[in-house]
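can u do me a favor
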């Protein structure tokens, strides 16, 4: 079923008008004008609005207002069918007011909406890197925001038809692994590590530092083991690979608990070590390397960036070196149209340098994009740490979310068995935590607040889950829905149809900003409007059969949209909350 959503419809009208204008003025450069078409809530600015006149004005070298007049005149001469009127506002914005019956006409569509209707014509291949925790260390709160965001972005691209490669770039390199090898060789037990990988490896690492206090030799031993690793020593390489495998067991347990989809590639940084001599050779051949006090650097003055260190004086390589090697590897192996790196804001400089080096190496420009995000702060708005002052782990946060949710379920659902209560508390806790990590723009710091996260009346997962459960229960009570009569619907309902049809707008904005908050806002508004409708309108008891069916179709459309939205956000529907 080919569906034209109102946003696409308006887009088509504008493209047509621009074409006509290009023809009139014999200026084909007008065809390159890029413009947005945005959904508008309420009807002050129309149902949809566009900034197209501004782009046109620039090329024609006329005021935007004049360009808007021209576009408006062309469109008005062409159509009368679906648009009631066009207004110009804000010095050149075009506001499109649809005829109310346009929304009524589209009612039939709603219950049939499926992901296919939202497929992006481009359907490119994209690598999305996220999570990327460090081997032998617990995932912390930052990794949690990262993982939930990256997973949802990957879901979004998958949903609109891209070929998505989910990539986990695990940290398994650095001098600390020399120390860990020393500690394991001296005090480690295979079974203990296998039983509790991260905890045990972390214990060994901590013990290393304790023993170091009275045995200063250890420092050197650590360096030697790391050196051996760098030179490709078999035993150490195998140990490192085993640390990675064991750590992944633990990470996978967390991913599963959180409902994070499986990664397509899980590759440790160490994997790129053998590729580094060739990379250094290539940099050298391209005259990009410079010796600086015995170390090798790439100057990035042309990009107004500080030089990137590629090799230290002692010959060892760095995070950046393996990063460049990994980028080259990804491009060569998979030839993606883009690589999104979901990594904390504090690594901005690192990525600017990486992308600059990629340009110098002639890799497709703009292949990489750093999808940064801000911190998650503790309830007091300060750094989120444990009572002992340690950084809080992802597991601790998850447990807290589930515990808080358990309290609510215990109180509200006394009817359920213990097993059912535990199950639903876990689902609600995880949903709430994930939604809370996504509902704000990624550059907004999140202040952890269990009440808000689990609130039944705010912008939260429980609110959405509860609304969905209500609507889907009407549908199951109703059974088969007949063909309705959309013209029996009233303004409130037509506005809801308008909202349902604007799902594409939320997807486009989320993709544009690489942030799920637009989708979250949309779902919250949809649920709120739908709740108001539900509370003010008798649906199942409606005496007019056709109107009842129309209303049920609307509810069905709302449910479809919520299901698709939840799927992208990575939260579960919970029909029996
Ligand atoms: N392992 C790093 C950390 O936990 C993040 C790695 C990010 N990804 C990358 N390609 N550099 O801080």
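np, heres the sequence
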């Amino acid at each position: 079923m080919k569906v034209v959503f109102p946003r696409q419809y308006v887009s088509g009208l504008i493209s047509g008008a621009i074409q006509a204008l290009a023809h009139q003025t014999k200026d084909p450069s007008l065809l390159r004008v890029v413009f947005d078409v945005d959904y508008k809530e309420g009807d002050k600015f129309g149902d949809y609005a566009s900034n197209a006149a501004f782009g046109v004005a620039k090329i024609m070298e006329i005021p935007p207002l004049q360009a808007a007049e021209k576009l408006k005149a062309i469109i008005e001469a062409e159509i009368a069918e679906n648009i009631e009127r066009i207004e110009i506002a804000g010095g050149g914005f075009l506001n499109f007011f649809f005829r109310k019956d346009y929304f009524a006409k589209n009612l039939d569509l709603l219950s049939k909406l499926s992901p296919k209707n939202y497929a992006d014509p481009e359907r490119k291949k994209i690598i999305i890197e996220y999570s990327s925790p460090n081997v032998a260390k617990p995932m912390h709160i930052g990794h949690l925001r990262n993982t939930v965001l990256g997973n949802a972005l990957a879901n979004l691209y998958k949903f609109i038809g891209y070929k998505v490669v989910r990539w986990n770039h695990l940290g398994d390199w650095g001098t600390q692994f020399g120390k860990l090898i020393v500690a394991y060789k001296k005090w480690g037990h295979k079974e203990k590590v296998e039983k509790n990988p991260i905890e045990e490896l972390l214990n060994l690492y901590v013990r290393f530092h304790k023993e170091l206090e009275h045995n200063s030799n250890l420092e050197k031993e650590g360096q030697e083991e790391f050196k051996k690793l760098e030179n490709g020593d078999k035993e150490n390489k195998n140990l490192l690979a085993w640390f990675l495998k064991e750590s992944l067991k633990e990470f996978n347990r967390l991913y599963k608990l959180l409902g994070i989809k499986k990664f397509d590639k899980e590759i440790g940084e160490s994997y790129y070590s053998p590729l580094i001599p060739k990379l250094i050779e290539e940099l050298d051949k391209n005259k990009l390397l410079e010796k600086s006090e015995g170390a090798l650097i790439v100057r990035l003055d042309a990009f107004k960036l500080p030089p990137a260190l590629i090799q230290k004086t002692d010959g060892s390589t760095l995070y950046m070196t393996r990063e460049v090697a990994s980028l080259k590897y990804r491009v060569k192996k998979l030839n993606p149209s883009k690589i999104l790196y979901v990594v904390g804001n504090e690594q901005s400089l690192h990525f600017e340098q990486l992308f600059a080096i990629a340009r110098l190496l002639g890799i497709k420009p703009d292949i990489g994009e750093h999808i940064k995000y801000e911190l998650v702060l503790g309830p007091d708005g300060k750094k989120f740490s444990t009572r002992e002052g340690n950084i809080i782990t992802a597991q601790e946060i998850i447990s807290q979310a589930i515990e808080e949710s358990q309290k609510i379920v215990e109180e509200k659902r006394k009817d359920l068995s213990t097993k059912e209560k535990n199950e639903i508390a876990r689902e609600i806790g995880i949903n709430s935590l994930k939604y809370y990590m996504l509902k704000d723009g990624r550059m907004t710091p999140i202040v952890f607040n269990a009440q808000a996260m689990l609130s039944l009346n705010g912008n939260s997962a429980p609110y959405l889950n509860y609304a969905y459960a209500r609507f889907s229960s009407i549908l199951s009570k109703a059974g088969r829905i007949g063909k309705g009569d959309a013209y029996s619907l009233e303004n409130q309902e037509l506005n809801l149809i308008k909202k349902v049809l604007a799902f594409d707008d939320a997807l486009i904005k989320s993709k544009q900003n690489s942030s799920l908050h637009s989708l979250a806002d949309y779902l919250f508004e949809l649920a709120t409007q739908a709740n108001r409708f539900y509370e003010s309108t008798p649906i199942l008891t409606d005496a007019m059969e056709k109107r009842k069916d129309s209303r049920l179709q609307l509810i069905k459309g709302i449910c479809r949209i919520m299901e698709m939205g939840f799927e992208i956000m990575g939260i579960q529907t919970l029909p029996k909350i």
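The chain has four domains: 6-98, 125-262+329-376, 388-451, 455-577. hope that helps!!
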